[in-house]
Amino acid sequence: MADPSPPPKPQGEIVIRAIAMPADTNSNGDIFGGWIVSQMDLGGAVLARSIAESRVVTVAIEAMSFVAPVNVGDTVTCYARLQGVGRTSMKVEMEVWTHHYSDGTERRVTHGIFTYVAIDEHGRPHPVRRPG
Ligand SMILES: CC(C)(COP(=O)(O)OP(=O)(O)OC[C@H]1O[C@@H](n2cnc3c(N)ncnc32)[C@H](O)[C@@H]1OP(=O)(O)O)[C@@H](O)C(=O)NCCC(=O)NCCS
Fold this sequence. Notes:
alpha+beta; 5-stranded antiparallel β-sheet; 42% strand; elongated; binds coenzyme A
């Protein structure tokens, strides 16, 4: 389904920027969706870790939409915005925008909501907002 009302400009802070490479293509010659999701997951973790000041793990991905294909050579930028903080969890809205090198086109290609849990050295959840 087409994106009904894409925002005119990216929302959030830049957490990852990369160039889409031929090694990450699918059988159509476009960039494989799994690669894009992994960039989003890593990018969201960058923001979540800075908030939790600890390791984090991804516990859920929701509202994920692939709006437009990513082409080889596009500059891919992941934007992250904190949507909410629970006791041990953080919801991060992720958007990916591409910049096409030859014509300068910018477009939002994917978006989704990633939930991370702050964990201690034993992999157990711990509160994001700790006293002191
Ligand atoms: C994340 C993990 C540590 C949570 O452990 P747990 O015993 O379920 O802990 P809890 O039940 O206390 O839940 C912790 C938080 O996660 C949230 N949570 C758990 N499952 C969730 C889900 N499916 N969707 C959204 N939030 C979820 C809980 O609501 C809770 O949030 P809060 O503390 O802010 O209220 C554990 O499930 C885990 O290690 N999962 C694997 C993570 C992983 O390997 N990720 C990489 C996959 S590619």
